[in-house]
Amino acid sequence: MPVLQGGDWYYVDGEKPSPLKEPEQKAENKPGHRPISSYQLPKWVYHPERVNRRIVINKEDYFGMAADGLRNFDLWNVAHVAAYHDDLKLLSLATLEQCKEPNRWGMTPMHMTGLGQHPYGPSLCVLWELIQLGAADPEALNSADQSAWHIAQRMQKPSHLKKWEKVVFKGVKPDEYEARKQAQLRPRGKFARALGMEPVQREDTSKPLPVCLVFPGQGSQYVGMLRQQKELPAVQKMLATAKEVLGYDLEELISKGPEDKLSQTKYCQPAMYIANLAAMEQLKLEEEEKVSRCRAVAGLSVGEYAALTCAGVFDFETGLRLIKARAEAMEFEVSGARPGAKAQGMCLVVGLDKDSVEKHCKASSSKGENCQIAACLFSRAFSVSGSLSAVESFVEKAKAAGALDCVLLKQAGAFHSSEMADVRNILVKELEAVKGKMMPPRCTVYCNASAKAVGPQSSVQEIVKMLAEQMVSPVLWELSMQQAISDGCTEFYELGPGTQLKGIMKRIDGKIADKMSNISV
């Protein structure tokens, strides 16, 4: 007979589990016995073949210690798993007794915190929570006569061990605690629950989720962003690297401004790159699998570099060095410092179709003075860039043609037009220099220049070409988003300051926009 223990059924050695028995061997299939589903049983009744109302924990979360969730020979409970992963939400599901309970090897959840491997070291947040609950006993020994401190000493490097010791022996709250608590205990994340008497549907964690992560571009920045995220260890590391690579304190500029300086291209683009990736780190804290298992990514203009970093094409520092070269070259072009350079401009026009916009661009261009579509944002909404005189002429013609709105943009240049040919050449040299460090993306990337999907089977050279063409070609954002939706992406996250991309999505697909989430910084 199977034994019900802790809400799960266990079989004695040698006994064949009920789900594996032949149908004719089961009592419910013999004369005089009705199928169990025909009885009006209360939902608290358990049965080996029926699901209970407990939370289903994926096999990967046990790291082989309770691989199938049934034969938990090592006697892990939910508090052990939470302690290993530093997961406060999972810990909230444990009872006080489970927070103290040793497993088969005498390892309590406090012991397990020393085994955790995180960027900041052991599982400090769960450790602090266990102490607050009165469930942490520093003197408790496992089967090998080791205390939790011995485990931490064996598993952690000295700097991380000191953090563990401060929490246990000095009562110092971990720096990461408040951020992780706020992120993990929000009602946004969901655990899979088994309902009613239906069979358990186990999710295949090897498959990507229908999630598309999108990153905004220049124009969404503001002074004071990163107030909360700059305390995250990963973001602190990015800001330290940025100070070394850029040669100035970007964190101070982001925090204190002035706004006019932050809006300048050479400062704005690195700031947006870090802000976008900081939002990604925030999402990792809240719902890590949305990042690790996303199906696709895309970024608007400079946001495409954050998307490629997220997709694993290049690391943070490589991406930052590319953006530094790109931004400084673009700033040089816009400033008019190049001999013979013309003043440049960009405008946003809403209310005209593409054919009309192209017609007025052509009519506004003359010898040496050109303008063209720089971005197709959504239906009847475009940005136009080129020489300032041509763009100003376009604004007059567009208003006369009945455009709902047409305004010149401040501190903008002839981005994504033929005027950026010199910038393209500089960027190509930088890309060729780091090409050896680049990798094909781990997921789909929708390119600005073509709106086509670049995936794991694509070559690095294809990505180099795509980034180069982005400098002189229109950003096909509407087509990119339509393609992502057509390819099965149903859940979109905007990662970065503001709600620029969600506003655009409302004009592309209102139903998708209603479900679109913002991880702002």
Automatic annotation (TrEMBL):
Q: Where is this region: Disordered?
A: 12-35
In what ranges is there compositional bias, type Basic and acidic residues? 13-31
Which SUPFAM superfamilies does the record cross-reference, listed alphabetically? FabD/lysophospholipase-like, Probable ACP-binding domain of malonyl-CoA ACP transacylase
Any one Pfam family match given in the protein's UniProt record, by short name: Acyl_transf_1
Please name the SMART domains in this protein's record: PKS_AT
Q: Where is the Malonyl-CoA:ACP transacylase (MAT) domain?
A: 214-516
Cross-referenced InterPro entries: Ac_transferase_dom_sf (IPR001227), Acyl_transferase_dom (IPR014043), Acyl_Trfase/lysoPLipase (IPR016035), Malonyl_transacylase_ACP-bd (IPR016036), Mitochondrial_malonyltrans (IPR052760)
Q: State what protein this is by name.
A: Mitochondrial (MCT) (Mitochondrial malonyltransferase) ([Acyl-carrier-protein] malonyltransferase)
Q: Which organism is it from?
A: Durusdinium trenchii
Upper lineage: Eukaryota, Sar, Alveolata, Dinophyceae, Suessiales
